[in-house]
Please model this.
Amino acid sequence: MNRYIEPGKGDGFFNSAVQFLTRLGVSMAGSRVLLVRGRKSGEIRSTPVNLLTIDGQRYLVAPRGQTQWVRNLRAAGEGQLRLGRRTVPFEPVELPDAEKPVVLRTYLRKWKWEVGRFFEGVDHDSSDDVLREIAPGFPVFRIREGTGR
Model:
């Protein structure tokens, strides 16, 4: 599924503010700055993301779908997560749709206030069947820290 939602007018300001605070070392509910090499330009690109932890495992969810950071991360096969001065290299492992419902449910429980509009009425109380149905539109990556090429 090639689902993608363009950023809205207020998203740029909000993302810039979160990115600025995260660079200073202030995490907004788990925020990090994702650094990944652009697949076309080769330049390092940055964007704020919400790092989710479930049972000691860390995940990135793309609530707007097939964004540039998702495409770049797939192409690069590695990235970095930054909070303040600390930068952690990682290898992304994309989850198959069947494994996404528990991650999507937890993500929505924690960040519905921020990203709920991208899920079009689906929330953490939605059934597993509904979460499986929407899973193809929401890329999810498990983070393998300390790896990278």
In short: The chain has a mean pLDDT of 86.
